[in-house]
Write a structure and sequence with these properties.
It contains three helices and four strands, in the order H-H-H-E-E-E-E. A hairpin with a 5-residue loop joins strand 3 and strand 4. The model has no long low-confidence stretch (mean pLDDT 92). It has 116 residues and is an alpha+beta fold.
Protein backbone atom coordinates (compact mmCIF):
# COMPACT_ATOMS: atom_id res chain seq x y z
CA UNK A 1 0.00 0.00 0.00
CA UNK A 2 2.91 2.36 0.71
CA UNK A 3 4.13 1.97 -2.89
CA UNK A 4 0.75 3.12 -4.22
CA UNK A 5 0.73 6.09 -1.84
CA UNK A 6 4.24 7.08 -2.98
CA UNK A 7 3.25 6.73 -6.63
CA UNK A 8 0.16 8.88 -6.05
CA UNK A 9 2.28 11.54 -4.34
CA UNK A 10 4.89 11.51 -7.12
CA UNK A 11 2.25 11.89 -9.82
CA UNK A 12 0.35 14.62 -8.01
CA UNK A 13 3.63 16.52 -7.52
CA UNK A 14 3.72 16.80 -11.32
CA UNK A 15 0.05 17.51 -12.04
CA UNK A 16 -1.16 19.60 -9.09
CA UNK A 17 1.06 22.54 -10.15
CA UNK A 18 -0.40 22.24 -13.66
CA UNK A 19 -3.93 22.58 -12.29
CA UNK A 20 -2.75 25.53 -10.19
CA UNK A 21 -1.15 27.18 -13.22
CA UNK A 22 -4.49 27.05 -15.04
CA UNK A 23 -6.26 28.55 -12.04
CA UNK A 24 -3.63 31.32 -11.94
CA UNK A 25 -4.16 32.00 -15.65
CA UNK A 26 -0.56 31.08 -16.42
CA UNK A 27 -0.54 29.14 -19.70
CA UNK A 28 3.27 29.14 -19.93
CA UNK A 29 3.67 27.53 -16.49
CA UNK A 30 1.09 24.90 -17.48
CA UNK A 31 2.76 24.14 -20.79
CA UNK A 32 6.28 24.14 -19.34
CA UNK A 33 5.93 20.57 -18.08
CA UNK A 34 4.86 19.19 -21.46
CA UNK A 35 7.26 17.76 -24.02
CA UNK A 36 7.00 20.03 -27.07
CA UNK A 37 7.40 16.93 -29.28
CA UNK A 38 4.37 15.14 -27.87
CA UNK A 39 1.53 14.46 -30.33
CA UNK A 40 -0.91 17.38 -30.34
CA UNK A 41 1.33 19.79 -28.40
CA UNK A 42 0.64 22.70 -30.77
CA UNK A 43 -3.13 22.25 -30.46
CA UNK A 44 -2.86 21.92 -26.67
CA UNK A 45 -0.73 25.06 -26.49
CA UNK A 46 -3.18 27.09 -28.58
CA UNK A 47 -6.18 25.83 -26.62
CA UNK A 48 -4.67 26.48 -23.19
CA UNK A 49 -3.62 30.01 -24.16
CA UNK A 50 -7.18 30.64 -25.38
CA UNK A 51 -8.68 29.15 -22.20
CA UNK A 52 -6.73 31.39 -19.86
CA UNK A 53 -7.48 34.42 -22.04
CA UNK A 54 -11.22 33.76 -22.20
CA UNK A 55 -12.00 32.27 -18.78
CA UNK A 56 -11.35 32.44 -15.07
CA UNK A 57 -10.51 28.83 -14.28
CA UNK A 58 -10.89 26.69 -11.21
CA UNK A 59 -8.97 23.47 -11.75
CA UNK A 60 -8.16 20.33 -9.77
CA UNK A 61 -6.69 16.94 -10.52
CA UNK A 62 -6.70 13.60 -8.73
CA UNK A 63 -4.76 10.41 -9.32
CA UNK A 64 -6.94 7.37 -10.05
CA UNK A 65 -4.54 4.60 -11.06
CA UNK A 66 -1.61 3.61 -13.21
CA UNK A 67 -1.49 0.74 -15.66
CA UNK A 68 2.04 0.23 -16.91
CA UNK A 69 3.13 3.54 -18.44
CA UNK A 70 -0.42 4.93 -18.55
CA UNK A 71 -1.60 7.08 -15.67
CA UNK A 72 -5.30 7.77 -15.16
CA UNK A 73 -6.19 11.17 -13.71
CA UNK A 74 -9.56 12.73 -13.00
CA UNK A 75 -9.37 16.40 -13.98
CA UNK A 76 -12.04 18.92 -13.08
CA UNK A 77 -12.37 22.48 -14.34
CA UNK A 78 -14.91 25.23 -13.92
CA UNK A 79 -14.63 27.82 -16.65
CA UNK A 80 -16.21 31.21 -15.94
CA UNK A 81 -16.32 33.49 -18.94
CA UNK A 82 -14.68 36.88 -18.55
CA UNK A 83 -17.72 38.30 -20.38
CA UNK A 84 -20.31 39.42 -17.79
CA UNK A 85 -23.48 37.34 -17.86
CA UNK A 86 -22.02 34.52 -19.97
CA UNK A 87 -22.50 30.93 -18.86
CA UNK A 88 -19.88 28.96 -17.01
CA UNK A 89 -18.80 25.50 -18.11
CA UNK A 90 -18.08 22.64 -15.70
CA UNK A 91 -15.87 19.86 -17.01
CA UNK A 92 -14.77 16.61 -15.43
CA UNK A 93 -13.02 13.82 -17.30
CA UNK A 94 -10.66 10.92 -16.85
CA UNK A 95 -7.45 11.68 -18.73
CA UNK A 96 -4.76 9.19 -19.66
CA UNK A 97 -1.24 10.57 -19.44
CA UNK A 98 2.33 9.40 -19.77
CA UNK A 99 5.32 11.03 -18.11
CA UNK A 100 8.97 10.69 -19.11
CA UNK A 101 11.76 9.94 -16.68
CA UNK A 102 12.55 13.64 -16.81
CA UNK A 103 9.03 14.26 -15.48
CA UNK A 104 7.78 15.83 -18.71
CA UNK A 105 4.29 14.96 -19.93
CA UNK A 106 4.79 13.08 -23.21
CA UNK A 107 1.18 12.05 -23.85
CA UNK A 108 -2.24 13.28 -22.75
CA UNK A 109 -5.59 11.96 -23.97
CA UNK A 110 -8.07 13.33 -24.76
CA UNK A 111 -6.43 16.67 -25.51
CA UNK A 112 -9.83 18.11 -26.40
CA UNK A 113 -10.61 18.38 -22.67
CA UNK A 114 -8.62 21.63 -22.82
CA UNK A 115 -10.29 22.93 -25.98
CA UNK A 116 -12.13 26.22 -25.37
Amino acid sequence: MLVIADERTDILEIFTPLASALAAGNAQAFLGDFDRNMPGYDDLSNWVVALVDEYEITSSVDFLESKGEDIQLEWSMRLRSRIPGAKSDDRKQVLTVRVSRKKKVVSLQPLTFFKP
